[in-house]
Design brief:
single chain; mainly alpha; AhpD-like; 0% strand; globular
Length: 121
């Protein structure tokens, strides 16, 4: 069973600081990854929110807490409702079983944390 990080805000900030080291040490790889991310998340036939919902489902299936943190944070910024997130998580659970259920609980914890910290609309 997964354990929920103490704070997804702290987790994403810590990972971001370590990614800065990688941007300095392997700039070509990090630039390529950033360009890939921009191209993949750009609005197209699917909008940015739909793509982030796919990303959260994949992050849950991969059991990646940092992925959960970053993608839930993006989803909150995009105005994703709890129901929209839960439907994406339902697909992750369907495809990934019990382990995805545990990480879906973590995604809900991240959603609660980031929505509580979000500025009022």
């Amino acid at each position: 069973m997964s354990s929920t990080p103490t704070s997804y805000t702290d987790l994403t900030q810590t990972v971001s600081s370590h990614l800065a080291t990688l941007r300095q040490d392997i700039p070509d790889v990090m630039k390529g990854f950033s360009e890939l991310a921009r191209a993949a998340t750009r609005d197209g036939a699917l909008d940015k929110k739909t793509k982030e919902l796919i990303a959260i489902a994949l992050g849950v299936a991969a059991h990646c807490d940092a992925c959960i943190g970053f993608h839930v944070q993006a989803l909150v910024k995009l105005g994703t409702s709890k129901a929209e997130l839960e439907e994406a998580l339902a697909m992750a659970i369907y495809m990934g079983g019990g382990p995805s259920l545990m990480y879906s609980a973590n995604a809900m914890a991240a959603y609660a944390e980031f929505t509580a910290a979000a500025p009022a609309a």
